[in-house]
Amino acid sequence: xxxxxxxxxxxxxxxxxITLGHLDAIGKCIASATDDAQxxxxxxxxxxxxxxxxxxxxxxxxxxxxENEHFTDEVNVPPVPASKRRR
Length: 87
Hints:
globular; alpha+beta; 2 helices; four-stranded mixed beta sheet; single chain; 4 strands; about 30% helix
């Protein structure tokens, strides 16, 4: 049982929504949260990350969006320049 997801609960109870599922465009599982006006967060499930850990990160990202006006977007990340890639 996942508990302590107070920000997700408040968002959904206030008319917002979360989405959890596979995104074919990137070939990974994502979790996103939106309210009636904006997207608050889009997270990519990390390799080996338990589903409850992803939801806990989403819960924290929702709080960050409302408290700090910070939008977390792990889906649409800019490409890393070749000069900064690990070799």
